Amino acid sequence: MNEPLIYIILLNYNSYNDTIECVESLKKIEYKNYKIVIVDNKSTNDSEKILSESVGMYCKVIQSGVNGGFASGNNIGIDYAIKNNAQYVLLLNNDTLVEADFLAKMVETFKMDDKIGIVGNQINYFSQKNKIWFGGGQIKWDRFSGAHQNYGSIDNGDKTIREIDFMTGCCMLIKTEVFRIVGLLPDEYFLYLEDLDFCIAVAEKGYKIIYNPSSKIYHKVSAATGGEESAFSVKWGNRNRIILMNKYYYKVDKSALIKAKAFFYVSRIAKYIKYIANGESDKARAMVEGIKLGRNFIKSKI
């Protein structure tokens, strides 16, 4: 078999139904030289037992022993894959379904350039399969944030392969050598922005991140965290933006950094007022808590 060996990592937390559905989707793909690793992030239900019984014959199920977040859980799977001679590692959200040719097209993309370190694909909404959730990633350094290109657009069948700033951790195919050069996923974030941080580090080492929209999957979008702007996502998104700004401050000059920080805090005030006005006090509290957590994390590293 000439196909490179790929390990597909699925992270599970209390969502065995999604994980099983994802595995069933993967079983139908055209690419054959792959193995699936499910890392259960210390689920509080019977996920590990159910997954072992239902898909254990197709997958390696690993119990992390602690819910350490997205990066921590995936890193367990990545480490296992590397130790078992993976040539590529695919990080894939467990709340996704895939097209049969998605992985073959991603692997083929690597043949374009030896400096490609990560290949990503187009991700559409599961609930609206012709609507784009991720159509490429652009880093906005004036805000220290990552923007999903073509977000919310109708899928027009574009097949233009291009270089992007970052790929969402929802689905990224990574050359194993990248982990040896860059390291594993940064685990200080718990959830959100670790993928952006990792892509920044990958690019700093001279690797390219390539987007191939002819490869396509469908994402249920934040199924495990309550939605795209749940109180949970508000809390961790705000915490982690502070950490990212502090970590990559050198990417912009001093005046731009001051402007970025000023925008962040002024816009948080505006959002706080909006949440209160809309009766979303849970989100208002979550935002304040997230900011406090981010600032305390920075202080702990000084």
TrEMBL record:
The keyword Glycosyltransferase applies. The keyword Glycosyltransferase applies. Gene3D superfamilies: Spore Coat Polysaccharide Biosynthesis Protein SpsA, Chain A. One of its GO terms (molecular function) is transferase activity. Transmembrane segments: none annotated. This is Glycosyl transferase. Pathway: Cell wall biogenesis; cell wall polysaccharide biosynthesis. It holds the Pfam family Glycos_transf_2. It comes from the Bacteria. Belongs to the glycosyltransferase 2 family. The lineage of its organism: Bacteria, Bacillati, Bacillota, Clostridia, Eubacteriales. Keywords: Glycosyltransferase, Transferase. Residues 8-179 form the Glycosyltransferase 2-like domain.
